[in-house]
## 1
Amino acid sequence: METRMKMKTVEPEGYKAMMLFDKYLSTTQLSVRHKDLIKIRASQINGCSYCMDKHIREARETGETERRIYGLTAWRETPFYTEDEQAVLALTDEVTLITQRVSDETYRRAVETLGEKYVAQVIFAIIGANAWSRIGVATNMMPS
């Protein structure tokens, strides 16, 4: 499989807009750990090998453990994640799989655990991770 195009080259203004969105995300209160979990989990659900490779490497650099990285595919069945991380991961799963809807229970639990402003920032981070994954999948981006 070959990469179909380089979006940065073919559509630089669109790419620039995506980078500005990432810049906004870097100004939020989101913890590095939460951002890493969101990026990896959304990449797994979307099947984006490029994004999974990139975000797993980044998470390792920021101190994430192998056990927790490997456990993400079955995060609900492991004791590896804190209550706030579980709330973030549940939102990530449901926002990424948006056609199945975000349940009232998931949303309520997230707001109770994290607060409304933080949940808004989590949702924006999930949207960003999904946008990048969709670019990666649509253009056949490959890990290097």
## 2
Amino acid sequence: MVGDAFFDERTEQSEVKAAIVSKYFRAWATVMLSQQRKHGGDRLFYMELFCGPGRYGDDTASTPLRVLEQAANDADLQKSLVAFFIDNDADYLETLEAEIAKMHAIKAMKHAPRVLHTSVDEDMAEQFESMDFPPTLMFVDPWGYKGLSVRLINSVLKNWGCDCILFFNYNRINMHLSNPLLIEPVNELFGEKLAADFRRRVRGLVPDEREFTIVNEFGLELLKQWGQYVLPFCFKNRDGKRTSHHLFFVSKHQKGYEIMKGIMARASSDAEQGVPSFQYAPAGPAQQLLFDYARPLDDLGPMLLERFAGLSLTMREVFELHNVGTRFVERNYKDVLASLEIEGKIKADPPKERRRVVKGKSTFADTVMVSFPPRKV
């Protein structure tokens, strides 16, 4: 296999990716268990497609073992979690089963992890379409992209409480997009209409524009299917100049979006003006999804004054109504609103003089009421 060396060495990017997935799993499971109790449910699914052998060549655990370690050591997850690990590589699965067998804590789980040797393809998507899933976190992590499709994502996300994290191998997709011998797998990924549109639009574009177009339009397709809660995260290669791949997160609920946004923000390698980078290269207005994630903090104040002109809302309401589709996090909103208050551009209740001071600055709690001036005619 071309991908035999994929798990031989743990890279910095793979470590960050595994950390993002395992941290989100923990937060997602906590929320879903609470909701399941209210509705009389008792099961959660974790599904990892293209799961691999469970460890890299340096013996570092990859996502299957990280997720199981968390579940096996949590009294609630021991009873509720059903984990599925799926791959078409029998050797990988044999290794993974052996690694799971070594985990002493796994014996406490009510449902033994299920390791399945099968292909991830359109037949699987069709099968999933006919099934009703309990709350499910699906992580799709192909070495290339064969088997990954918008249809597969939709087949699981149709159910309540289901979120998806997927590996998007831009480099390989870019190489194959215009290859007449690889029309079918590219069409399966995007759908025939979108794939044909990509081939037409990227012809003649320089590499940066080509990347932004493909990644942005894939994200917009997910937005079209599932609303506004889509987060892209970009990984650069070792010299920091070229993109190696992206992670996309898709949820149907703001809570999931907010949790993952915080995790990705902390995983970002740098920040500008306190705004986490999400590892994006600069984007232009033509790529609206990526452009909005590239806005600097200086833009946030004017954006809020324009968006909420004439309205009075709490700080928390401002954050929830505005942050989706941007890379701004909660602390950015608090800092900017505090600055706007000092500049006399908004009014806050209680005002800064009556709020707690930390390190010489007035705090800006979630409940502070913010009044924006009406838009100037």
## 3
Amino acid sequence: MTSHIFISSMARSGSTLLDKLLNSHRNLTIHSQPFPYIFIEAKRRFYQIINHPESYYFLNHYFGENHYQIDQLNGFLEQSRWKRTELINLINAQQGYSGQQTSHDRYHGIDTILPDEIQGFDPLLRKLLEALPGAEGTSTGSKEILCEEFMPYLASHGFRTILIVRDPRDVLTSINRGKGEAYFGKPRPTLFHLRNWRKSVAFSILLEGHPNFLRVRYEDLVTEPKNTMGEITDFLRISPLPDHCFEGEIHDQNGRAWDGNSSHGSKHGISTSSLGGYRQHLSIEMTRYIEYVCFPEMRYLGYPLEKNSWNSAHLTCFREPFDIRRPELPQDYSQDPVHIKQEKQRQSWLQGDYMKRPPDEVLVQWFLSPAVFQALAEAVASD
């Protein structure tokens, strides 16, 4: 049986539904976003060491990243040292943070279980998970959104890692409509969200084929829940979920009926009602903008696209429909001429002659790795 599990995703991609379903298994205890500040602090410390200019979004989207590569982050995580007092302060500081979804009473007594100091992010996360209450004899794990960059390190250290992805058009709908702001804060620019969505796909391609990694599509989870969860439980080396887990109410980690966290109201059980919601809530201009920016990844994942989606006119004609009230991100982020040029250049490389592709160091900066670039280029060429 798998000992430790880690789940991540772009926000509003179905990771909460997945952690609730997995937690219903008699052999699993899955905690929902128990340690977001620990992950943020790990990246903050790393950025400080390498003099990275980012000072707010430590869990960043990696597009255009030229200050480090993933192996450097992995090396830092391996050598990082964590004092008990620092960890307790971070856990206490999480209270009231919307990104922390585990009941506060579950942390009671954790300070008496942690050693004075822990070296390495792998033993740190294991110790933190084991310090939280769970059913005796179960495998334990957690879900943290926007933490995909930790997955290569954790997978290499024996964590079973699962990344769930969702149609970016529905992701943006969920973020910006209904209760989206309550779940994910004040509006951010559309392009910023889409680059974070592409980050999820890039890491899923980077890890594809790794024995400790599995990618799941939200659409498959809600339309074929029994089959999809069967693939997941096989991956985790545990028995399938019983049929009653797919019928009626879903319960949270405290045993209460879970109404879901949809942006458009309560949902009991597994529901397909949010699929394709962008058709009712997004303008044609925004839908085409998303399809252009995410075209290679959507093609790679098998999401349906309009025939004229890959047209740069959708990029240049777009105007941000939301009021961006964030000092760290400008209102014109999605229409910034520099960003538009970057997006066009990215698409040009993917459409170009593979034999004339940019050097590997350029591909790492803009695609995370040459392997990701190749996979996307092949998806585009198969169109």
## 4
Amino acid sequence: MKKLDRYEGYPNVYQRKIVMVKDDDGNEYEAWVYYREGEKEGIPSREYRKTIFEGAKECGLPEDYIKESILK
């Protein structure tokens, strides 16, 4: 967690908290999320989407899933 915090700029750039998420079967899990106070919600930048895309490929996520979920 310390390495991820440092990479994400916590606590100077981003804050973090635990949220509940659900998978496709409705199972609930706790997940850490990083967020910026005062930032407006919206479409992620092209650079950020590229980072997410590359991470999804490295993790071996199916190409169809990546196209439907990340690249839309």
